[in-house]
Design brief:
The protein is of the alpha/beta class. A hairpin with a 2-residue loop joins β4 and β5. It is built from nine helices and eight strands. Strands 2-6-1-7-8 form a five-stranded parallel sheet. A three-stranded antiparallel sheet has the order 3-4-5, with helices on one face.
């Protein structure tokens, strides 16, 4: 990682507020925002589109070597993600892709394939990187590291509301819209999967600043993060 660029990592489980906080933080700091989770969703999307058996390392490796991702970065805005020239940003947020991305992201092949891509962004831009292993694996020498967490029920309510207000398809292939209870169960399962996987498990970096966002508004979390950055 190039020392001239400033890198801020924000890790944490689903629904902790990482996306909203990271976007606002990058906007206030005037740097780009990188949603690394979208990259794993993109792999899951291509696995589905190409009908690849992701549990077969040979098939998965062949797919990964054929992929060409391009992330159009914006200051404070949502990056547009392109796969082989096609904008897939609006197709990677369905419950099926979300679940599959959690499974696929546990594969060493996938994480290694995306590692270089993420670090290349950091060589060229000051950035806020949102993810699950940004501070522990991808950028262990980041300038500032934060880990957001919140009560499970609060996180489920946030994700449920986000899904219902999104301008993208939030239904399963069977046409079933997720209930709040199903969202909470899905988040709980993902917490377990992400925390227990052998490859880059979800956990705070030893030097990360922990922030409980349960009772905080996004702006309050951003203010708290900025106070730590300024203090340093």
């Amino acid at each position: 990682m190039k020392s001239k660029t400033k890198i801020i990592t924000i890790d944490g489980p689903a629904g902790a507020g990482k996306t909203t906080v990271s976007k606002e933080l990058s906007s206030r700091l005037g740097c780009v925002y990188v949603d690394t989770g979208s990259l794993y969703r993109a792999v899951a999307y291509e696995v589905c589109r190409c009908s690849v058996n992701w549990q077969d390392d040979e098939e998965l490796s062949a797919l990964l070597s054929s992929l060409s991702f391009d992330l159009k970065l914006q200051t404070g805005g949502t990056p547009r993600l392109f796969s082989s020239g096609q904008d897939i940003t609006d197709y990677i947020r369905t419950p099926e892709i979300t679940k599959l991305s959690s499974d696929v992201s546990a594969k060493t092949l996938v994480r290694h394939a995306l590692l270089g891509f993420q670090r290349e962004i950091a060589r060229n831009s000051d950035a806020v990187f949102e993810g699950r292993d940004m501070g522990t694996v991808v950028f262990p020498d980041a300038d500032h590291k934060f880990f957001l967490f919140a009560d499970l029920k609060i996180r489920a309510i946030r994700r449920y509301s986000q899904n219902n207000n999104a301008d993208i398809l939030q239904q399963s292939d069977a046409g079933h819209t997720q209930t709040l209870a199903e969202v909470e169960e899905a988040i709980s399962k993902r917490d377990q999967n992400d925390s227990s996987r052998e490859e880059a498990p979800l956990k705070p970096a030893d030097d990360a600043i922990m922030i409980d966002s349960t009772d905080l508004a996004p702006d309050e979390v951003v203010d708290k993060i900025l106070s730590y950055i300024t203090a340093r």
